[in-house]
# Entry
Amino acid sequence: MINIQKNLRSNLANSIFIISIFLIGVLSACSDNDVINEDQRSINETPNSFSFSELDNISNFSSEVSNQITVNGNAIIEVEPDIAMINLSIESRESTVVNARENNTSVMLKVLKKLYETGIDESSINTNFFSITPITQWNTVRDDTGEYSEQIILGYNVVNSITIELEDIDRVGEIIDIVTLAGGNLIRVGSIGFNVKNTELYSEQLRILAVENSLNKAKSYAKAARVELGSLISLQEISSPSINAMESSNFERMMVDFVTPINPEGKQLSVNIIATYEIKN
# Structure
């Protein structure tokens, strides 16, 4: 019995030894494969050298780009505004919100009635905003619990703001006088702006001037570089004809026929392009 147990232990030890050798071999093989795969990955990730045809194409592309002149072209024209925007509001303050709203509505209706009577269409008058806000005050209160601040509502402020679009800008002073008389002390004239209603009327002129500007620039560069300028290759409009406020108005006329004199601010329309011209060999 003892011999049988010894034999079993000996066979078990041999089996464990053989399995260990086998596992070591498998792990070693996997490690070698990882090294091989890593080497292959490194080889695959290495950039391939350019072929002669690819290098030739790059050279030709560089040559084509170098045989071009790219310039910005811009055009600005000064125009007289043909539309006015008058922003005004009625502001009323009363101890109760009902009285403040009713007073505001009554005065605004008077203003609108006068505007309609002067021939201004209802579609030319738009509401900007309407607001009702409380008028508050913080008071110091002292009682058995101590001293603290308490907010008290003194009344309500109602504001109704509108914008009048006026195509006859010579009537701006007249309209201001009319709304002032109708609105009395509750009228607030916020701002008066002048604009160009249809900029497309000047688009073609602006674009022609912008192309001429780019061509003159390209000719100057070609002359300085002692090369011959070729045809236009490409043209891109960076900004469509748009309105810029002029820093100083060139329109000196003053609307002196009315009590309120108004000097319309001139406007500038501009467009910008990028143009590329070829250089002749």
